[in-house]
Amino acid sequence: MAQAVGNPLRWLQAAGAKRKQLPEQKAELMSELIDQSELQSRAARLVEAARKAGADACDAVAVTGVSLGVDVREGKVEETERAEGDDVTLRVFVGKRTAAVSANRLDDPAGLAERAVAMAKVAPEDPYAGLADPELLVKDFPVLDLLDTKEMTAEDLSEIALEAEAAGLAVEGVSKSGGAGASWRLGGVVLATSHGFQGSYISSRYGMSMTAVAGDGTAMERDYDFDSRTYFEDLESPAEIGRRAGERAVRRLNPQKLSTRTTNVIYESRAARSILGHLAGAINGASIARKTSFLKDRMGERIFAPGIQVIDDPFKRRGAATRPFDGEGTKADVLDVISDGVLRHWFLDGATARELGLKPNGRAHRGGSGTSPGATNITLMPGDKSLEELMAEAGEGLLVTDLIGHGVNGLTGDYSRGAAGFWFEQGKIVKPVSEITIAGNLNDMFRRLVPGSDLDNRYSTAAPSIMIEGMALAGN
């Protein structure tokens, strides 16, 4: 079964009060507390109230969470922020008319439901509105590794951030800190529908970052490093994060400009995720239905080179976007979005699937008054060449480490981004460069894309370094 959710705030308070218990006692305590049913009760009461108020169908989402973050600079804590929140959203359907209302308290479920039904009755009809097909609902919940029970205090987070900052400042050439931070978040979600679905899960997230500044005056350069994980034990060490941030900043000192040319471009893994993000946007069912995607007519065609594979996996172990069900309670499968270079799937929720005459594939994301389709844990699978081997193969070109702006036309695929990084020759970095624009068209870029072997698998959008030959570079 999915991990049942009670009230995470109550769980934190109770677990914190008994931190000194033996490990086996603490595990038993947490099992008992996580089994609480407050969130489920909220959602169920809203669904019942909406049906009594005249809704033909409805669903309710109840969420609760707590987060704690600490920012430090120059060896001192600058800010400590704790946030706690509860929210419920009720969506009702009256025929093909729909409306949604939200509240952070549930003092009057009947009143909230009556307001939602009244709003729906005067809303315009939406021919694609409705709950998920009952046959598509999740019935057997997968066991997912989403919850780390390690508690963090402000003191714990301060120590992590201060250690990362100290490591960055210790790098030769770093002149000052741009700040460091550490965070912890715990959140729970419940979805209940009028046609019998109820599911819940609780997840944790830990993170840290450090920004280093190198040089002085107008010659200063800055860079950063960060990490974010579901389980604390998976985080890289603060010292490693700080050291890499410092080294990255120092490497950027005294950047030069380049003349306009056509050249090979290699995106390091951190920058390569943006290319995968553009693909995810182009195969979003909403863009396909609106006909605003340059890939709208390319289903079943080879859009990448043979051998390229992109996978979207909602069940990735400890993944940033892992979940037992989507925003409609629909079951999902691992999708081979790109198989051997061929486009195989759109991301679909119920509404976009009905509009396109297709079957939903469990990619509904909840937000505002309804759902929208999107990726979960999307990964460009790695190739067999390291970053160094890609550079050696390319000979000379631009290694992109940072991108600026959002110059992508989703309708045509035209691509233009500001960039900074390093110029390499004979496979070796020779100088840092900046104030560059790289341009092309995503259709052509996808066809020429060569993935490296250095997959960074930590994030919901994961990619290795990638090489794209023959891109336009605009310099001075």
Fraction of residues in helices?
25-40%
**What count of domains describes the coordinates?**
3
What CATH architecture label of the largest domain applies? 2-Layer Sandwich
CATH topology of the largest domain: PmbA/TldD fold
**Count of beta strands:** 19
CATH class of the largest domain: Alpha Beta
List the strand order in the largest sheet. 3-2-1-4-5-6
Quick one: CATH superfamily of the largest domain? PmbA/TldD superfamily
Give start-end ranges of low-pLDDT stretches. 1-36
Give helix and strand order, one letter per element, not per position.
Answer: HHHEEEHHEEEHEHHEEEHEEEHEEEHEEE
Mean pLDDT: 91
Portion in beta strands = 25-35%
Q: Count helical runs.
A: 11
Q: What distance separates the N and C termini?
A: 59 Å
What spatial form do the alpha-carbon principal axes imply? globular
Q: Calculate Rg over CA atoms.
A: 25 Å
Largest sheet composition: 6 strands, antiparallel
Structural class: alpha+beta
